[in-house]
Amino acid sequence: MEQSKQASAAALLVVDMQNDFVRPGAPACVSGAIATVPAVVRVLEYFRARKWPVFHVIREYRRDGSDAEITRMREFTAGVPYVVAGTTGAEIVSELTPLDGEYRIVKPRFSAFLGTKLDFVLRRLSIGTVVICGTQYPHCIRATAYDALSRDYYTIVLTNATSAETAEVAEANIRDMAGIGIQCIDFERFRTFIEDPRASQRRERV
């Protein structure tokens, strides 16, 4: 990583940390999501302290599921809607409540870039690196990370602040993302590089 460009121009994307995806017992709960909330809080505090941009990326559907992915419409017609706009389930979990000045991006599909203004705003802010956390690995995290890299952002996924249904699913997705050059590292390693670049290996792009 070239610190002059990346460390000084990083934005955080917190993906889908909504009640219906995070809270145990919710209709679309991701098993590993609730355990990552304290780690996501630490990441948020770090970016906020440095006044780096924070984007809360969420999903919202119509109650009838007419705007859901074709693969999810059956769930809605079966009477199990989730993250419906205007409901408590669609709200970001209270521990991660956005602050004034932070960005809220509603994505219509898995990737935070598809059909949103995210790329436009990142470029307006001269962002070179996106740091991603949230839920869940094989869906919105992976789609967002791939699209970020495809748009030539240095892309980092914070592994201890990101979740999946199982550890095996997380590990498989981490391997695939790392294989194309996405940096999959824990928050402590990321923070160490930012605060002491000499601790990073010479060719490591964080």
The counted number of beta strands is 6
Residue stretches low in confidence (pLDDT < 50, at least 5 long) are 1-8
Number of helices: 8
Overall tally of domains? 1
Structure overview:
The protein starts with a helix and ends in an 11-residue tail after the last helix. The protein has a single domain (3-199), classed as Rossmann fold (3-Layer(aba) Sandwich), CATH 3.40.50. Mean pLDDT is 92; it is low at 1-8. The chain is α/β, with parallel strands linked by helices and 206 residues long. Strands 3-2-1-4-5-6 form a six-stranded parallel sheet, with helices on both faces. Helix 6 (137-150) packs parallel to helix 7 (167-179). It has eight helices and six strands.
Characteristic key phrases:
disordered N terminus, 206 residues, 18% strand, six-stranded parallel β-sheet, single chain, 35% helix, 6 strands, alpha/beta, Rossmann fold
Q: How would you summarize this macromolecular structure in one to three sentences?
A:
With 206 residues, this protein is of the alpha/beta class. It contains 8 helices and 6 strands.
Topology:
Elements: H1 3-6, E1 10-15, H2 19-22, H3 33-49, E2 54-59, H4 73-77, E3 103-107, H5 118-124, E4 129-135, H6 137-150, E5 154-163, H7 167-179, E6 183-185, H8 187-195
Parallel strand pairs: 1-2, 1-4, 2-3, 4-5, 5-6
Helix pairs in contact: 6-7
